[in-house]
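Dear support,

I submitted the protein below through the web form. The confirmation email said the job was done, but the results page showed an empty box. After a refresh the structure appeared. I'm attaching both so you can tell me whether what I see now is the final result or a partial one.
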Amino acid sequence: SSAEGGACSQKSASPEGVGAAMEDGATTILLRRLRPNLTSAELLMKLDEIAPGMYDFVYLPRDQQRQTNIGMAFVNFTDHAAARSVFDHFAQLGRSQMPAKRTPEVLQACVQGLGPNLAYFILKNGYAGIHHPEAPLVFQEGVREPSLADAVERHVSLQLFEAMRVSLESEQ
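What the results page shows now:
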C-alpha cells in the first residue's frame, strides 16, 4: 500500500528479543494496528511518555471518507536510541497484551529520516498536501514547526526529491 512507505521487507519486532529486528542507526518506525479513533494529540502524548521531544516527524494518515486514521503512523526520531526505546516499548506491549485485544504492531519503516519522509509524503500527495490539516507534523527540539513548507525547504534538497522519485518508480 502506498501509505506504508515503500516496497521493502518490513522489519517487525521478533518474539525472540525486544526490538531485535531494528537495524543499527534506524530512526523511523511504523506503528500499525492503531485504533481508528486515535488522534495525533494522543499519539504525541504517548510518544512523550517514552521519548519526550525526541521525535521530529509524526504522520498519522487519515481516511477522509471515514474521518478516522488508517490504523498506522510513521514517526522519525532525532536519534537511534530514542527510536529504539519506542520500538522496544511497543514491541513489549504487543507481547504482553492478550491476543484478542487490538495491540499496536511496531516495525522499522522503509523510508528512514526526516528529509526522506517529507520528500516521500510530497511525492505521494503533491506539494499542496503540505497545507492539508492532516499533513505530517514536524518538530525541532521538541517544538512543532509552524510551517511545513519551511521545514520542507530546510530538510529536502532537489537531489533528495530525485532520489525518492527514483525509489518510488522502482516500487511500481
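Response: this is the final, complete result; the empty box was a page-load delay. The radius of gyration is 15 Å.
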